[in-house]
Specification:
heterodimer, A: 284 residues, mainly alpha, 14 helices, B: 237 residues, Rossmann fold, 2 domains
Amino acid sequence: MTELISKLSLYFEYPFVRYALIVGVLIALCSSLLGVTLVLKRFSFIGDGLSHVAFGALAIATALKLTNDMPLMLIITTVCAVLLLRTGQNAKIKGDAAVAMISVGALAVGYLIMNVFSASSNLTGDVCSTLFGSTSILTLNRTQVQMCAVLSVIVVIIFVLFYNKIFAVTFDEDFAKATGIRADAYNLMIAIVIAVIIVVAMNLVGSLLISALVIFPSLSAMRLFKSFRSVTVCSAVLSVVCALFGILVSIIAGTPVGATIVCVDIVVFFVFLLLGRCRGGAKA
Amino acid sequence: MAQLICENVSLGYDGREIVGDLNFHIDEGDYLCIVGENGSGKSTLMKTLLGLMAPLRGRVSYGGTLKSTDIGYLPQQTQVQRDFPASVWEIVLSGCQNRSGMRPFYSREQKRTARENIEKMGLSELSKRCYRELSGGQQQRVLLARAMCAAGRVLLLDEPVSGLDPKVTEEMYRIIYDLNKKDGMTVIMISHDVSAAVKYADKILHIGKSVFFGSTADYLKSDTGRVFTDVKGSDAP
């Protein structure tokens, strides 16, 4: 045990490990907040699709040799989020088909661009780390850390300020519209916030695993808690704890950060599922 | 005074007309029941009245000083709501949202309104409970309390008793009747239970193959009405 602690404290002397921890916690916090809304509005697909779009955007940024890739990713992902939401409403092409189309398309185009324009000698490694975020959390530079921190704080502030409106729109969109709430505007806001979360979270877990970070904590919390507020608080706490634990394990054991965090989330989910069964009994 | 006016309204999906040329108006304090066969466009009409859908042709307008924030709505339950983790209190309070404007949190007054409506619906004991664990009738009362929070003057109800057992159904009709008569709330209700409609409502709008709009007494005498009612029209209880 003392060996572990001394090993950890040795690691914490390095600034990049401290950055990783701070950013990890912030990202975990903001990604869990909208999880409930996403799950209940059947938007989980959109989150998944957007993460692929973010991958495509990253490929473009790499090809253009941008030093800071986040602004471009933010713009492209946000635009796609808005488009996906619109198609979901008008439904000439059904919502989930549109999502599938855009997400797979973005994945293919992204990989192609990376392949054709990449100057890097280790292409497979690059692709793998953008998809699974294997080591990227430890290679963040100062600007990226600052951007992540600022965006996360903005997301949390927006969520707190609009908490009641998000609840009203999530629970019953028709009612909200009928009684004079601008539900479309809030849906748009939710989509944009999701896009921001995904771009930020890509640094932590890579584009393929983001949905897990968004959905698992909320699903776990929903097993045990019964009000929107308690589910939200619980999923935020769970997400932060799992991320912390996952990052520490990955540092000590040398496992990939993203996958480790998601595995911790999965274990917690099953624990909560069991607890829910035990407590609920008859309630399936 | 007319609160809602429909002029030459035609309804339908994708350009296909379901109901054509509806003309009617709803006055303050009315209790209107919209009846008709399944698929005759009752829910579509209600969505149009609420401004959720545009009519194919014609015009729906709010008369006098009625605004969309004066309207409460009891929709049919959606699948999302059946497994939504939310307490009764959170749901009823969310009905007050339309008066919040840009304010992020609920005022003390909004919380009081929510509490009053919870009491009025007899839900005080349940206010901390989870919505999805309640019985059908209780859930419906929660949604009615929420609609009351949003409603200043008009209440629109889409099949408020569907799926409820006879005793709870009777209770629900009673509550709605009282809201209309005691609180002066204008009630517009969709129902496929014609016998209850003629028992409680002052006015009937029948849509379908034939269209009727008028007082309940006239409806019972009309050809449209006689086909669908074999019950004797009793006056309101």
